[in-house]
């Protein structure tokens, strides 16, 4: 099967600062790829370029067989095929949990109200929030809001799910409930690219770990290799912070 996502020599700069420097990455169907690296290494920018929130300066990005870095591409069509969850929950505060989830189903994917409501109900049951359907986001804990955000992102059955440090804004006791949900999505075969600082989670869930350093992919491989026998000195130096 062809790759779901392919980045070919992607460059992105902000002013004189090169944030992405010749990124080459291919993600297969059902693969879970964890992006790790220090703050400022380019993880979030990489995800933002894939969702067309940041234009690239050079290279190409493919979603299946579509060159989504082509300037004339239909941005809305691309984003309809990708689910994204950011560090902050970005839920609409004036809408109930149920309506947050059904919004894209009804207005982007033109699903009838009854079908959208049924899909949202099933998703809320899956994430353990069936009793919160009529609540507004400000009545939920951070972990609950992030689970709603993930449910909203996967409601449209995206070809690719991008997760950008989805636990970084959570209190430590709430991290586990969100990671459990991501673990279940991975087990169901969803294609996921996630930027994370949760090293144990990346080791347990990812099929491949990609270490970014100053905008370059310095090392990439199975978790056992990257965490157990990293090839690069810089990778060992970075991982030492988490084992010291």
Automatic annotation (TrEMBL):
Residues 5-239 form the ABC transporter domain. It is a peripheral membrane protein. GO terms for molecular function: ATP binding. It is found in: Cell membrane. InterPro entries: AAA+_ATPase, ABC_ATPase_HisP-typ, ABC_transporter-like_ATP-bd, ABC_transporter-like_CS, MetN_ABC_transporter-like, P-loop_NTPase. Keywords: Amino-acid transport, ATP-binding, Cell membrane, Membrane, Nucleotide-binding, Transport. Belongs to the ABC transporter superfamily. This is Amino acid ABC transporter ATP-binding protein.
């Amino acid at each position: 099967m062809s790759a779901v996502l392919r980045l070919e020599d992607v460059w992105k700069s902000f002013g004189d600062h090169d944030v992405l420097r010749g990124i080459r990455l291919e993600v297969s169907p059902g693969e879970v790829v964890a992006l790790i690296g220090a703050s400022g290494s380019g993880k979030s920018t990489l995800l933002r370029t894939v969702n067309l929130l940041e234009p690239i300066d050079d290279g190409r990005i493919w979603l299946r067989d579509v060159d989504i870095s082509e300037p004339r591409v239909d941005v809305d069509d691309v984003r309809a095929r990708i689910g994204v969850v950011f560090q902050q929950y970005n839920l609409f505060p004036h809408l109930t949990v149920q309506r947050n989830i059904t919004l894209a189903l009804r207005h982007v994917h033109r699903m009838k109200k009854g079908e959208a409501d049924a899909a949202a109900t099933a998703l809320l049951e899956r994430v353990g929030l069936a009793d919160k359907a009529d609540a507004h986001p400000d009545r939920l804990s951070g972990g609950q809001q992030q689970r709603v955000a993930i449910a909203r992102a996967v409601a449209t059955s995206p070809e690719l799910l991008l997760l950008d440090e989805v636990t970084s804004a959570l209190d430590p006791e709430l991290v586990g409930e969100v990671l459990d949900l991501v673990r279940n999505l991975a087990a169901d075969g969803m294609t996921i690219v996630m930027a994370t600082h949760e090293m144990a989670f990346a080791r347990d869930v990812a099929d491949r770990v990609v270490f970014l350093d100053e905008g370059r992919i310095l090392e990439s491989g199975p978790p056992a290799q990257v965490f157990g026998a990293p090839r690069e000195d810089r990778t060992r130096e970075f991982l030492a912070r988490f084992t010291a």
